[in-house]
Write a structure and sequence with these properties.
Elements: H1 2-13, E1 19-31, E2 37-47, E3 55-60, E4 64-76, E5 86-97, E6 103-109, E7 123-129, E8 133-134, E9 145-147, E10 151-155, E11 160-163, E12 165-167, E13 173-178, E14 195-198, E15 203-206, E16 216-225, E17 230-233, E18 239-242, E19 266-277, E20 291-293, E21 302-306, E22 311-318, E23 323-330, E24 336-339, E25 345-349, E26 359-369, E27 396-398, E28 402-409, E29 415-419, E30 423-429, E31 441-442, E32 454-455, E33 459-465, E34 472-475, E35 479-488, E36 496-497, E37 501-511, E38 527-531, E39 535-544, E40 560-562, E41 567-576, E42 581-591, E43 602-606, E44 609-610, E45 616-618, E46 625-631, E47 634-635, E48 642-652, H2 659-662, H3 674-682, E49 691-700, E50 713-716, E51 721-725, E52 728-732, E53 735-739
Parallel strand pairs: 10-19, 21-28, 40-49
Antiparallel strand pairs: 1-2, 1-19, 2-5, 3-6, 4-5, 6-7, 7-19, 8-17, 9-12, 11-15, 13-16, 14-15, 16-19, 17-18, 20-22, 22-25, 23-26, 24-25, 26-27, 26-28, 29-30, 30-33, 31-35, 32-33, 34-35, 35-37, 36-47, 37-52, 37-53, 38-39, 39-41, 41-46, 42-43, 42-48, 43-44, 45-46, 48-49, 50-53, 51-52
């Protein structure tokens, strides 16, 4: 009793930091020699300053803390007007729990930030978990992995849907509901208005509300239930049973009621703040509200990391009527974020040995601003829902929230890199390349003899110049990174692949001493030309959704994202005031750069003949159109985009001596006679000069962006290890992608002992 009074006294003495939200998750690590269990409790908490302000209340069977590590995750000054900032902190509380029975833990403190529905009193995060060994898995029960950004915001006139991260590693059914037990699951338990919560899918819908400088405080409870009847066994010999969640009606998930007593396997708190901003001029993403672009992973994507190696998530967004200002994140301890000088955000995190086998959610959203310098919001009349302008006080626009799930696995490729002032030396243990032969490994620039890999009895290695062998430069505000990779190939002359690939990516990082940027090119405009005999005409090169050629890909959505092996539909169309003309496409090539002189090219059409075996020619609607498609591919190496460029010309219709009338000229086609050649020169009006048109980029969807999880879609995403020399940091990563998307192709997945 005295202990309880002491805990409550500590609560009353705690400094009154304002609470924005928090969450709790559990992970059972192992069994101690004394029979107790080592349990890791991860507690997220967000306040109006970067200082802890809560008390831990031990409720049932929660043992003693052995280690306590706390650190800042993220912070922002874009808080409500009543606060200057919010700051999210994660605490990893490792506890020795005396038994594997059910236990409860509570974090509590004072007070909620200013809310608009009466939550300005004490907050509490009540959690519980049953650690019993499951009959279906034979392992201790695990809690769901939950996450959300601590501070969400949306203009009052823009409806939006938020899919809350709620993954269960045991495959249990997860449900999210409002807390309904005052002073236990919630403070006053007042539910926000203007929102709909789909409990079964853990989806929150913002429908409509009014702007207010105060936030809505959400106090949710996340529960998991088995998919079928199971039993939980305990070390003292006792057992308990759990049954699936049964509902009476599924018409409206928000009003689902339980049928009979069905206790959950665990209860976890999920609390956050939600601000409704004044009206936005437009609710269309990409104008004021930021729109995500590739290579940003999809919401719910499953990524893989390796112990002691850095996982990297790249995020890009645009807002044509606002300025991209910041990215806000939520994730595990030691996560970092940076913005590169070419506008891309990079989230990085390095798991440790104790994280092996666990899952870690990472959430992010991008924020844009208007009126940053003069304190007023820019007004444009593009609103889709209301014809109103925003308040001068509302100049921050937040994108949708996306969350990904990172699974931590064992190290698969043993390697390291050494950095000097002008070179990188990479060494990879040959024994870690299971089933791969060293003769089928290459650097980015595989054609250069000076860039070939070498080997001895133990390692495959290479000394790579920072300015050669396909090394690419990337920079952020503080560092320069020189990146290259080792990848597999079938034939050394290949530049593309439509098959599986293995990549070992590495880089050297140097403190910034200069300034270099990487250009990012988007949709190519219409080409307008003038030609004697043909007057002024234009070429338009576009991508289409399918072979009906009715839905052109929106130019503002570039780069266009495709899955490898999917069919890409393209159309080149000429317009001219001269009648009886036809378009002829003489050649088309692909390149990772928008440069017709690029040395890294792949032929699609040459001399009017199909070269790529997947090319199909589709019927045009008139003679000045050329429609074709092919299966998407990627260039071997660190090239994440593809440009298509074509050489085209206009010809007079019906003339026998034009390039169009000749069609495909293969190596076996008889050469044109000198007489015909001179005749075409005299009749130059029947054929225009050749012109160059290009379009792109195409970006191939990385398998890390797929939410699918199967043996045929095995993906180990970017992972790194670190070392340093001469103030440089050498990083190395391994990406192993074994993919089979067509039944005609078979791939060998990794064996169990190789994972």
């Amino acid at each position: 009793m005295a202990s309880v009074l002491l805990q409550l006294l500590l609560v009353s003495l705690a400094s009154a930091r304002r609470h924005f939200g928090g969450s709790v998750t559990f992970s059972v690590k192992d069994k101690n020699p004394d029979g107790s269990f080592r349990v890791e409790v991860r507690h997220m908490a967000t306040f109006d300053s970067c200082q802890d302000s809560y008390t831990t209340f031990c409720w049932h069977n929660c043992g003693l803390t052995s280690t306590w590590v706390s650190g800042k995750i993220d912070s922002s000054t874009n808080a409500p007007q009543s606060n200057t900032q919010w700051c999210q902190i994660e605490t990893v509380d490792t506890r020795n729990v005396p038994s594997d029975k059910h236990f409860e833990l509570r974090y509590l403190g004072c007070c909620w930030t200013q809310t608009r529905h009466g939550l300005n009193n004490d907050w509490r995060l009540q959690s519980s978990l049953d650690l019993g060994s499951r009959s279906d898995t034979g392992k201790p029960n695990r809690s769901p992995d939950i996450a959300i950004l601590p501070f969400l915001r949306v203009p009052e006139n823009c409806s939006r849907t938020y899919e809350l991260m709620s993954f269960d590693p045991d495959g249990d059914r997860v449900r999210c509901r409002y807390g309904n037990i005052p002073n236990v699951e919630c403070s006053s338990c007042h539910q926000p208005s203007g929102f709909t919560l789909d409990q079964d899918s853990c989806t929150l819908h913002y429908n409509q509300s009014t702007t207010d400088p105060r936030v809505y405080g959400f106090e949710l409870v996340v529960e998991d239930f088995p998919q079928r009847n199971i039993t939980l066994g305990y070390t003292d010999g006792s057992r308990s049973s759990r049954t699936p969640l049964v509902v009476r009606s599924k018409r409206h998930a928000a009003h689902t009621t339980l049928h009979g007593p069905t206790p959950p396997l665990s209860k976890l708190p999920l609390q956050f703040s939600f601000l409704v901003d004044p009206l936005a001029p437009s609710c269309q993403e990409g104008l004021y509200l930021p729109e995500f672009l590739p290579p940003t992973p999809l919401n719910g994507a499953r990524l893989h990391a390796e112990v002691d190696r850095e996982v990297e998530i790249r995020v890009r967004a645009r807002a044509s009527h606002a300025t991209i200002h910041d990215i806000i994140i939520s994730g595990p301890l030691n996560i970092t974020k940076q913005r590169s000088t070419h506008g891309e955000f990079v989230i990085r995190w390095t798991p440790i040995q104790d994280d092996l086998g666990d899952f870690f959610p990472i959430c992010f959203a991008v924020e844009a601003e208007t009126g940053r310098h003069d304190g007023t919001a820019t007004t444009h009349h593009h609103n889709h829902n209301h014809h109103s302008t925003p308040s001068p006080q509302s100049s921050v626009y937040q994108s949708e929230m996306r969350c990904v799930l990172v699974e931590v696995r064992r190290v698969q490729v043993n390697s390291h890199v050494i950095c000097t002032e002008s070179t990188m030396r990479v060494e990879v243990e040959k024994s870690s390349f299971h089933g791969l032969h060293e003769d089928h490994l290459r650097l980015n620039d595989g054609a250069n003899i000076a860039c070939r890999l070498h080997s001895n009895s133990t390692y495959v290695f290479a000394d790579i110049p920072l300015s050669g062998c396909g090394t690419e430069l990337e920079e952020d505000g503080d560092n320069l990174r020189f990146k290259n990779e080792i990848t597999t190939f079938d034939n050394r002359t290949d530049v593309i692949t439509r098959k599986h690939l293995l990549e070992v990516q590495f880089y050297c990082q140097y403190p910034k001493r200069g300034n270099a940027t990487l250009a990012f090119t988007v949709h190519r405009p219409i080409v307008s030309v003038w030609d004697r005999g043909f007057g002024r005409f234009t070429y338009q090169f576009e991508f289409y959704a399918n072979d009906q050629y009715q839905a052109m890909v929106d130019p503002t959505s570039y780069p266009v994202v495709y899955e490898i092996g999917s069919r890409v539909y393209k159309q080149i169309e000429a317009t001219s005031s001269v009648n009886n003309t036809v378009l002829f496409v003489e050649s088309c090539r692909a390149s990772p750069y928008d440069n017709q002189n690029s040395q890294q090219t792949y032929s699609i059409i040459e001399n009017g003949c199909k070269v790529d075996p997947t090319v199909q020619i589709h019927s045009p609607s008139h003679p000045r159109q050329f429609r074709f498609s092919m299966k998407a591919f990627k260039f071997i190496g660190m090239f994440d985009q593809v440009y298509i460029s074509c050489t085209v010309l206009m010809c007079a219709a019906g003339e026998p001596n034009t390039r169009s009338s000749q069609g495909c000229i293969s190596s076996t086609t008889p050469a044109t006679s000198p007489h015909d050649h001179h005749r075409r020169k005299r009749e130059v009006r029947v054929e225009s000069a050749r012109h160059f048109v290009s379009q792109g980029p195409l970006r191939l969807k990385r398998s890390a962006e797929s939410s699918e999880s199967s043996a045929l879609h095995l993906n180990l995403n970017l992972v790194f290890i670190a070392g340093c020399l001469l103030a440089a940091v050498g990083m190395i990563s391994a990406v192993v992608l074994y993919k089979a998307r067509m039944s005609k192709v078979k791939y060998q997945p990794l064996s169990t002992d190789e994972r």
